[in-house]
């Protein structure tokens, strides 16, 4: 709530109050990778929202293989995780997360992940993190 009052050397006029709302931030920081869990034919990937004040934020997710072939594309999702399923075993993929809102598009997070070569336990990447420090284990 803002109050406006005009004044001069004669005196001040009446106060007028108006309500003003600021716009939300445009995503200007990268989302942060939280975890990558690789299986034989799927990858689970989670991230944290970029720093800022947002009323709404959406993400575009793209997954490509080493040759640049798109394996997975989703637009305008609101969740902070994705499961990319039915992809080739023993293949490296690049996952791209791009945040956007009503004010514009933010910078993209790029994360590499490799599916496992055969039956086995899932691999965890970037799972352990502290508020200001990432501990990366491969």
Query: What amount of the residues lies in strands?
Result: over 45%
Which class of secondary structure composition applies to the elements? mainly beta
Written as H for each helix and E for each strand, in order along the chain, the element string is EEEEEEEEEEEEE
User: What integer is the average pLDDT?
Assistant: 85
The portion of residues assigned to helices is under 10%
**Structure annotation, total helices:** 0
- Supply Rg: 23 Å
Question: What does this protein look like?
Answer:
- There is one protein chain.
- By secondary structure, the chain is mostly beta strands.
- The chain is built from no helices and 13 strands.
- The strands form four sheets. Strands 5, 6, 8, 9 and 10 form a five-stranded antiparallel β-sheet that branches.
- Strand 1 and strand 2 (12-18) form a beta hairpin.
Give the SSE layout:
Elements lengths: L1 E6 L4 E7 L13 E7 L3 E7 L9 E8 L4 E8 L3 E5 L6 E10 L2 E2 L3 E6 L8 E3 L3 E2 L2 E2 L4
Q: What's a quick, concise take on this entry?
A:
With 138 residues, the chain is mostly beta strands. The chain has strands at 2-7, 12-18, 32-38, 42-48, 58-65, 70-77, 81-85, 92-101, 104-105, 109-114, 123-125, 129-130, 133-134.
């Amino acid at each position: 709530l803002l109050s406006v009052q005009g004044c001069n050397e004669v005196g001040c006029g009446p106060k007028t109050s108006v309500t003003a709302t600021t716009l939300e931030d445009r995503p200007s920081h990268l989302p942060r990778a939280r975890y990558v869990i690789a299986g034989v034919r799927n990858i689970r990937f989670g991230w944290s929202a970029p720093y800022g004040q947002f009323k709404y934020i959406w993400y575009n997710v793209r997954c490509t293989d080493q040759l640049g072939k798109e394996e997975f594309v989703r637009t305008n999702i609101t969740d902070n995780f994705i499961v990319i399923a039915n992809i080739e075993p023993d293949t490296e993929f690049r996952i791209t997360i791009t945040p956007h809102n009503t004010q514009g598009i933010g910078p993209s997070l790029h994360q590499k992940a490799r599916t496992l070569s055969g039956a086995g336990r899932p691999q965890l990447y970037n799972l352990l993190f502290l508020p200001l420090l990432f501990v990366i284990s491969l």
